[in-house]
Structure formats: structure tokens, C-alpha cells
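Quick one:
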Amino acid sequence: MPELPEVEVSRLGLLPHLPGQPIVRAIFRIPKLRHALPPELAAELAGKRVRAILRRGKYLLFDCTGDGENGGWLIIHLGMSGSLRLVPAGTPEQKHDHVDLVFPGTVLRFRDPRRFGAVLWHAGADVERHPSLAVLGIEPLSPGFDGEWLYAATRGRAAPIKPMLMDSHLLVGVGNIYASEALFRAGIAPTRAAGRIGRERCHALAAAIRATLQDSIAAGGTSVRDYVHSDGGAGSFQVVCAVYGRVGEPCRVCGTPIRALRQAGRTTFHCPRCQR
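Output:
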């Protein structure tokens, strides 16, 4: 958390404000997040102009390639607890406000209580070559992701389907919340071996993944811990979750109590009757 919908909502919230604007200066208040925040990186960012903001998996990509030989990409990952907010210049920083990017009319502030986020720089135009991005799998909202892709990717795999959906080397951005919700929508048990899911059910699951992510984006994402929008507002997808966080509560479809189990170190929520 944040997962793909929360990162996409953050991107959409920044689009009306930052493209075309120069970074006046960068302020680092701590020496490192997940990776170091060296003073030379702050100096490198000063003067760069943001041309566009893209997303790859859970990474936000700020295109600064228009700055000649010194151009490149600012890469931001929100980690487990990060959020980006636009605040007026001069707004006092609070605890966990670790990075500011100062623009002419606003400040982009990165808050990260657990410090698992990242602020990185990739020189040059081909950002996909950055080590953090080169290992990522297919985008679940891209045209290339469908039931046939999922069917081919699961053949011969004896591992349960739920952890596979969360493997970013295969499929990016589908974290714990949305894997649980998509499996419920598709009626597939999270413990079912991936390779034993037939073609028709793979098509249903792929459609459920896409619809779940799109529904969450439309709801502003899921706010269950620290995540907020760029304007400080919260998402509301958690209100309509069918299984996530509802252990012991009745299934919205059949009334059976929702159960929880541990898979790959994460809690999986499911309905034992609706999901087979």
C-alpha cells in the first residue's frame, strides 16, 4: 500500500498543476529513504522542467527529458506509507515530510512515515532501462493484458494464484487489496494452483482484475492507513470492498463469514463459499 490505483490517482491529481513547470529547488530533510538522498541529487533536480507525468507499476515518472544533455526522469515510489501533496509555498513541514519539490506556484511534498519510498534520477531518455523498472512485468491496464496472457502465464505453475498476481516481475501494481478483491469477483479461491485455472476462468479473472483497478481509481483509491490524494483528500474504495479487511463479516453475496489466511507473508481475505 499504496498500490496501482493510489499511484494513478496521485498522478491524475498532479497533472493539472505540474507539467510545464520548472523545479525551482529540491529540499531533502533526511539522508535517505529506501535509497540515499544525496545533496547532489537535489542540485541535479533544480532547474529541471517537468514535461509530463507517467506511471509504470507503482512508480511515478516525471519526464524532464527536454532539458538537453542534462535531461532525464525523476522516479518516485511511494513505498508502504508514502503520499504526495501539493501545498502552498511556506507551509510548515510536519513530522515525516521528508522531501519538497518547489515549483513556482506550489510545493510537491513527499510524506513517508515508514521511509520505504524512493526518489531517484535516471539520466537520459530511456527510463525503462532503470534497474527498478527493467524487471517489471506487464501492466494490468494495458491492451496486452487479457485472459489469454494470464492463461499462458499460469501454465505449469503449481503455486497458488494469489501470490502470483502480486509478483511484480509478472504483473505490476496488483497488491494485496486488489488481488483479494479480483479473485472474489472472479469466484476463484486464492489457494487454487495457478496452473489449474482453465482458460475461461483466466478470462474472467483478467477482466475482474482490470475492473477492480478501474473501480478503485474512480473511487479515488483505497485509504486504509496513510494514503491521501494530492489535495489531502482520502479514497473511498475501502467502503465497497467485498472481502478485504472484512474477516468474520458476512459475505455480501452469500452471507458466509469472510475468512482470512496467510499467504507469502500477507493476509488474504476470501469467501469460502463463493470462491472455488
